[in-house]
Amino acid sequence: MPFLVLLLIAAVVVFLVRRGRIGPPPWIAASHGGFGPGRFGAMSPEFEARKVLATRFANGEISPEEFLERAAALNWTPGVDHRPEPGKKA
Length: 90
Hints:
Layout (H helix, E strand, L loop, with lengths): L1 H17 L7 H6 L13 H14 L5 H10 L17
Helix pairs in contact: 3-4
Protein backbone atom coordinates (compact mmCIF):
# COMPACT_ATOMS: atom_id res chain seq x y z
CA MET A 1 0.00 0.00 0.00
CA PRO A 2 2.73 2.60 0.81
CA PHE A 3 4.31 1.75 -2.55
CA LEU A 4 1.10 2.67 -4.37
CA VAL A 5 0.86 5.99 -2.53
CA LEU A 6 4.46 6.85 -3.49
CA LEU A 7 3.78 5.80 -7.06
CA LEU A 8 0.70 8.04 -7.18
CA ILE A 9 2.64 11.02 -5.79
CA ALA A 10 5.42 10.49 -8.32
CA ALA A 11 2.90 10.29 -11.16
CA VAL A 12 1.26 13.56 -10.07
CA VAL A 13 4.63 15.33 -9.86
CA VAL A 14 5.67 14.07 -13.31
CA PHE A 15 2.30 15.14 -14.73
CA LEU A 16 2.62 18.66 -13.26
CA VAL A 17 6.19 19.07 -14.52
CA ARG A 18 5.24 17.91 -18.03
CA ARG A 19 2.27 20.30 -18.13
CA GLY A 20 4.48 23.21 -17.03
CA ARG A 21 2.63 23.77 -13.77
CA ILE A 22 5.77 23.40 -11.68
CA GLY A 23 9.42 23.84 -12.60
CA PRO A 24 12.50 21.87 -11.77
CA PRO A 25 14.26 22.10 -8.44
CA PRO A 26 16.85 24.92 -8.33
CA TRP A 27 19.79 22.54 -8.49
CA ILE A 28 18.55 21.09 -11.81
CA ALA A 29 17.93 24.53 -13.35
CA ALA A 30 21.41 25.65 -12.28
CA SER A 31 23.03 22.57 -13.80
CA HIS A 32 21.43 23.41 -17.16
CA GLY A 33 23.14 26.79 -17.35
CA GLY A 34 20.74 28.72 -15.18
CA PHE A 35 18.85 30.72 -17.78
CA GLY A 36 19.17 28.74 -20.97
CA PRO A 37 16.29 28.18 -23.29
CA GLY A 38 15.03 24.75 -22.69
CA ARG A 39 12.52 22.33 -21.51
CA PHE A 40 11.64 24.12 -18.29
CA GLY A 41 10.88 27.51 -19.84
CA ALA A 42 13.96 29.25 -18.45
CA MET A 43 14.98 32.43 -20.21
CA SER A 44 18.11 32.93 -22.30
CA PRO A 45 20.60 35.74 -21.59
CA GLU A 46 19.44 37.42 -24.80
CA PHE A 47 15.84 37.43 -23.57
CA GLU A 48 16.97 38.88 -20.23
CA ALA A 49 18.89 41.65 -22.06
CA ARG A 50 15.80 42.47 -24.14
CA LYS A 51 13.69 42.59 -20.99
CA VAL A 52 16.11 45.00 -19.29
CA LEU A 53 16.26 47.18 -22.41
CA ALA A 54 12.47 47.31 -22.68
CA THR A 55 12.16 48.13 -18.98
CA ARG A 56 14.66 50.97 -19.27
CA PHE A 57 12.78 52.35 -22.27
CA ALA A 58 9.42 52.05 -20.49
CA ASN A 59 10.81 53.90 -17.47
CA GLY A 60 12.05 56.74 -19.71
CA GLU A 61 15.73 56.11 -18.96
CA ILE A 62 16.64 55.91 -22.66
CA SER A 63 15.33 57.66 -25.77
CA PRO A 64 13.45 55.89 -28.57
CA GLU A 65 16.47 56.25 -30.86
CA GLU A 66 18.80 54.71 -28.27
CA PHE A 67 16.27 51.94 -27.65
CA LEU A 68 16.10 51.04 -31.34
CA GLU A 69 19.88 51.23 -31.70
CA ARG A 70 20.45 48.88 -28.77
CA ALA A 71 17.67 46.55 -29.93
CA ALA A 72 19.39 46.32 -33.32
CA ALA A 73 22.65 45.43 -31.54
CA LEU A 74 20.78 42.53 -29.93
CA ASN A 75 19.38 41.45 -33.35
CA TRP A 76 15.93 42.11 -31.95
CA THR A 77 12.86 43.53 -33.61
CA PRO A 78 10.75 44.95 -30.77
CA GLY A 79 7.26 43.51 -30.74
CA VAL A 80 8.36 40.18 -32.22
CA ASP A 81 8.82 37.18 -29.93
CA HIS A 82 11.60 34.97 -31.29
CA ARG A 83 11.23 32.26 -28.65
CA PRO A 84 9.78 28.95 -29.80
CA GLU A 85 6.38 28.05 -28.41
CA PRO A 86 6.47 25.55 -25.54
CA GLY A 87 5.93 22.03 -26.76
CA LYS A 88 6.91 22.77 -30.36
CA LYS A 89 10.20 21.71 -31.86
CA ALA A 90 12.36 24.36 -33.50
